[in-house]
Design brief:
single chain; 229 residues; DNA polymerase, domain 1; 9 helices; 6 strands
Length: 229
């Protein structure tokens, strides 16, 4: 069923349009080789994904800063793997990871197709918690920046999703209203609950089909957005 009255669509970036897991794995592969890290990459990534998620949650809730996140997620992963590594080398890996993360910019299947489809009839925006300097590179290097009227990052505003302030800031920046806007993202707490709490409509991008929320509009692929928009 098509949603009526929507003029502005706000997209999360990582894990929604930009294939973070794939691009991140390629970045780690590169920096491991550059820095002669002999840890098994697949084992590292298996542990890192959940650790990174927890650190981002702390960062999102303003309980840690960016530097603690960048160092801690690597340090904790190597510790779990019992891989002996100097803390100075962890610092270098943290810096190298950010430097090389946007060397690869794989998007989700049909990301370009759905942006082309939506761009004709809606104002599109990015609303992300990611680091400003990294998110801008992702948008430019993946050649999708031109689809978006505005880009709002948590660092710009000083708070991150799901804080209401970042949604209101993005709405004001886009010169629109909550009633005419919809949020699309993969983060249930940050994107979906955050948007719902300010009265914005939502579509939950549930890539792995794990959702237990039948009352929320859900897609498993980006092309499914055509059902609603």
């Amino acid at each position: 069923m098509k949603i009526k009255g929507i003029t502005d669509i706000f997209f999360d970036l990582d894990h929604t349009l930009w294939d973070f897991d794939k691009n991140s794995a390629l970045a780690f592969d590169k920096i491991f080789k550059i820095n002669n890290i002999n840890a098994n990459l697949n084992d590292f990534l298996d542990q890192y994904k959940e650790i990174n998620f927890q650190y981002w949650k702390l960062y999102r809730d303003a309980k840690i800063d960016k530097d603690v996140l960048r160092f801690g997620r690597l340090n904790d992963t190597f510790s779990i793997l019992s891989y002996a590594i100097d803390k100075d080398l962890i610092e270098k890996l943290a810096t190298d990871y950010i430097a090389y993360l946007t060397d690869n910019n794989y998007l989700y299947d049909d990301a370009i197709a759905i942006l082309e489809y939506l761009y004709k009839n809606y104002n599109l925006h990015i609303l992300s918690n990611g680091f400003e300097e990294v998110q801008s590179k992702k948008l430019i290097k993946s050649n999708i920046l031109h689809y978006f009227k505005t880009v709002t990052n948590g660092e710009d505003v000083g708070v991150k999703k799901p804080h209401p302030q970042i949604f209101h800031h993005a709405i004001q920046k886009a010169n629109t209203s909550i009633a005419k806007s919809i949020m699309i993202g993969d983060g249930y707490e940050a994107d979906i609950l955050g948007a719902l709490n300010v009265g914005m409509d939502v579509i939950y991008f549930d890539e792995y089909q794990k959702s237990t929320h039948p009352d929320i509009k859900i897609i498993n692929t980006l092309l499914e957005l055509k059902k609603y928009l």
